[in-house]
Design brief:
Elements (H helix, E strand, L loop, with lengths): L29 E4 L5 E4 L2 H4 L8 H9 L11 E5 L2 E5 L5 E4 L2 H10 L4 E4 L16 E2 L8 H7 L3 E4 L7 H7 L2 E3 L7 H16 L2 H24 L3 E8 L2 E5 L7 H5 L3 E2 L11 E2 L2 H7 L3 E6 L1 H4 L5 H4 L3 H4 L2 H4 L3 E4 L1 H6 L4 H13 L3
Parallel strand pairs: 5-6, 5-8, 6-7, 8-9, 10-12, 10-14, 14-15
Antiparallel strand pairs: 1-2, 1-3, 3-4, 10-11, 11-13
Helix pairs in contact: 6-7, 7-15
Length: 352
């Protein structure tokens, strides 16, 4: 089957979305090179605009046209990730994808590609890619022989496949997708611009990124006007971890402007171990919940974990503001264009 945001702003216009069911980018740029050897950098919006606002699609296309091509990547394409440069002679048609955020973006862009994916690890809202694709192995263990035989133009991986980077790079140009929580929005945008450029879909990506930013601006305006303070937790088979500013879910605070109920939560990939007593003491007005059990397995889901008198006494519970976020978007496919639309929508709905 053939099958990039600038500054942290943020409450949302209504989007019609299907529900979804985690580097240093200062040098991460996209360059489209013409046959005559001229190059045009297609950088993130925050780099293009001195005021920190997103440049329009027309500006992006105009810059590219001055070099004799378009930002859709019809000529040789070079992008830069945290590993170095990734270059293609033309947009990729045969692509191996291990990062679920990247697969989400490919789906959002409507790219007509031949794909190889880890078929047993696909989020349910992307289940169509479980068939009519080549099975590229497991999420943590790529099938190198199958990938070699697939003869890909491009391989896209994330942190879970980091140990295989050198071997995969020997097979085909390999894009390493990495989004640093401390620089989430810029990394999100540049990552998506990189993927789009390598597929000849920069115009489509720019349009969607501009709409996402507009939605975030609306959400942040509403959040700023609300006195409600929020706490973010992840539950995993009965265990609870708290996340705050600078965390993998910090987009809620730093990108969408929601006030933090506790500004001292430790910055950690896996969150800060939490308890019922802690949540009761913080007493958030909004409790955002990501249920890892739904995507990773286990016997105790978030609702059962939070069925506790201390939780029931919090402002969040009393005001019906315990918000269960889509774990496939927030945990599995974070970084994808469709996932980001859902994430912004879910947070924005709290302030409607």
């Amino acid at each position: 089957m053939r099958r990039t945001l600038s500054t942290a702003l943020a409450v949302l216009t209504a989007l019609t979305l299907s529900a979804c069911g985690s580097g240093n980018t200062a040098a991460a740029t996209t360059t489209v090179t013409t046959a005559a050897g001229a190059t045009t950098p297609v950088t993130s919006a925050s780099d293009r605009s001195p005021a920190g606002t997103t440049a329009s699609r027309a500006e992006t296309e105009s810059a590219a046209s001055q070099a004799g091509t378009t930002a859709t990547g019809t000529g040789p394409i070079t992008v830069t990730d945290i590993k170095g440069e990734v270059s293609l002679d033309q947009p990729a048609q045969r692509v191996v994808v291990f990062d679920m955020g990247a697969l989400d973006t490919i789906d959002a862009l409507g790219a007509d590609l031949e794909l190889a994916v880890p078929q047993s690890n696909i989020p349910s809202y992307l289940s169509k890619y479980e068939t009519d694709t080549v099975n590229a192995g497991g999420l943590f263990e790529p099938d190198l022989e199958t990938i070699y035989d697939f003869e890909p133009d491009l391989i896209i991986i994330g942190g879970r496949q980091a140990d295989f980077y050198d071997q995969l790079k020997e097979i085909a140009p390999t894009l390493y997708v990495s989004i640093d929580a401390a620089n989430y929005l810029n990394d999100f945008e540049q990552t998506n611009l990189n993927i789009a450029a390598l597929l000849g879909k920069t115009t489509e990506a720019r349009t969607q990124l501009d709409q996402i930013e507009a939605n975030m601006t609306e959400v942040s305006t509403k959040a700023a006007a609300s006195p409600d303070r929020a706490l973010i937790i992840l539950t995993s088979d009965g265990k609870i971890s708290a996340y705050g500013l600078g965390s993998r879910f910090g987009l809620i605070h730093e990108g969408l402007g929601v006030k933090a109920a506790d500004e001292t939560v430790e910055e950690s990939t896996h969150g800060e171990e939490s308890s019922y007593e802690y949540i009761a003491e913080v007493n958030p007005d909004i409790l955002f919940v990501i249920d890892r059990t739904q995507v990773a397995g286990g016997s105790t889901d978030a609702a059962a974990t939070l069925d506790n008198d201390l939780i029931k006494a919090t402002n969040a519970a009393q005001n019906d503001k315990i918000i269960y976020l889509d774990p496939e978007c927030w945990y599995l496919a974070s970084g994808g264009l469709n996932a980001m639309k859902v994430m912004v929508s879910e947070v924005g709905a709290v302030f409607d």
